[in-house]
Design goal:
Elements (H helix, E strand, L loop, with lengths): L1 E8 L5 H15 L3 E8 L6 H11 L3 E6 L5 H11 L4 E4 L11 H9 L4 E6 L6 H18 L11 E4 H6 L10 H7 L4 E6 L14 H19 L4 H36 L6 H40 L10 E4 L1
Parallel strand pairs: 1-2, 1-4, 2-3, 5-7
Antiparallel strand pairs: 3-8, 4-6, 5-6
The structure holds uridine-5'-diphosphate and magnesium ion (MG).
């Protein structure tokens, strides 16, 4: 068995030597053959120097340094590309994930799963991170049908085919189990011990939740309708257009009837109820025109999206720029 351990690093100089020691320990205890791939995501502290000296002393350490900070997703993508193992483990560099858990992940893969995601059941993070994250996980699980307690756990283990087939970009590292599940891979979770951050500080603030929510919508859309966007946009567009057109006709006829009746069929002044209906009719007429324009726009955007998917070539360019490799 050959295990690749991919570790995205952004300013974690103090943690790295300790982390590597812990990885060495568990791998030698279980006689895992391994490679450790550090991806330095544009660190501005001494992380790269630490990684370089680890790589010089240990032939199984490989490293990639980005030209600037491209984000954790790009780090994982570069790590997956470089990984040559049968199984790929990812973990954070900040010592919050415990390498001693690695055997539990591999045992789950052995049961026949393709992706095993960690579940930080007891989290050692501030409350303003823990509670929103619970809501986020519930939302992701119910919207996507991939039921995990902790989608964004840094510690995950993949069969190599899975990791190599996932389209990662943006900040989609939060949705790797969802993307894998949507392609039919078998996804499960395993409880992990979580540790307090000893050194440095978290790289994400509250904005992660807004961004995560936007990514959730786009991942949901792409996995569900990516191959046929018109099934969403066209269907709703047509429905909205037809519905609005019906109200357009109804309100138009109502307004015309009001005019004709009170102008030509009677000498009396228009009755109050008819005047009120007439004003309501103008309101509905206006709204129905807006609805028709929106419906038509949905339809047209859906058609354009169909064109893009029909002629879309998978992007070959990477989502990052490498400065050095070891
Ligand atoms: N990280 C990264 N690039 C970034 C931000 C974070 O490679 O732009 C790494 C970071 O060094 C750590 C992991 O991603 O190894 C998780 O980051 P962090 O611990 O800050 O996240 P949190 O634990 O607060 O969710
Ligand atoms: Mg952390």
């Amino acid at each position: 068995m050959f295990l690749s351990i991919v570790i995205p690093v952004f300013n974690e100089e103090e943690s790295l030597p300790i982390l590597f020691g812990q990885i060495e320990k568990v791998c030698s205890e279980h006689s895992y053959e391994k490679e450790v791939i550090f991806v330095d995501d544009g660190s501005t502290d001494g992380s790269w120097n630490v990684i370089r000296s680890l790589a010089e002393q240990n032939p199984e350490v490989h490293a990639i340094r980005f030209r600037r900070n491209f984000g954790k997703a790009a780090g994982l993508e570069a790590g997956f590309k470089a990984a040559t193992g049968q199984f790929i483990m990812t973990m954070d560099a900040d010592l919050q994930d415990d390498p001693a858990e690695i055997p539990n992940f591999l045992a789950k893969l052995d049961e026949g799963f393709d992706l095993v995601s960690g579940w930080k059941k007891i989290r050692h993070d501030p409350w303003h991170k823990v509670y929103p994250s619970r809501v986020f996980n519930k939302m992701v699980s119910s919207l996507t049908g991939v039921h995990l307690h902790d989608h964004n756990c840094g510690m995950k283990c993949y069969r190599a085919e899975v990791a190599h087939s996932l389209p990662i970009f943006g900040e989609r590292h939060r949705f790797l189990p969802v993307l894998a599940g949507s392609r039919g891979w078998r996804v499960t979770e395993v409880v992990v011990q979580h540790r307090k951050r000893e050194f440095g500080h978290s790289k994400y603030g509250f904005s992660r939740f807004m961004k995560g929510f936007m990514d959730l919508l786009s991942v949901h859309f792409v996995t569900k309708y990516g191959q046929h966007p018109q099934h969403l946009l066209g269907v709703y567009g047509t429905f909205l257009f037809a519905f609005s057109f019906l109200f357009f006709l109804l309100s138009g006829c109502g307004i015309a009837a009001h005019r004709i009746y009170w102008n030509y069929f009677t000498d009396e002044a228009p009755a109050m109820w008819s005047q009120i209906l007439n004003y309501v009719g103008f309101g509905v007429l206006f709204l129905s025109m807006v609805g028709m324009i929106l419906g038509g726009t949905f339809f047209a955007v859906g058609l354009a999206a169909e064109l893009l998917t029909a002629f879309h070539q998978a992007p070959t360019a990477e989502n990052y720029d490498v400065a050095e490799k070891l």
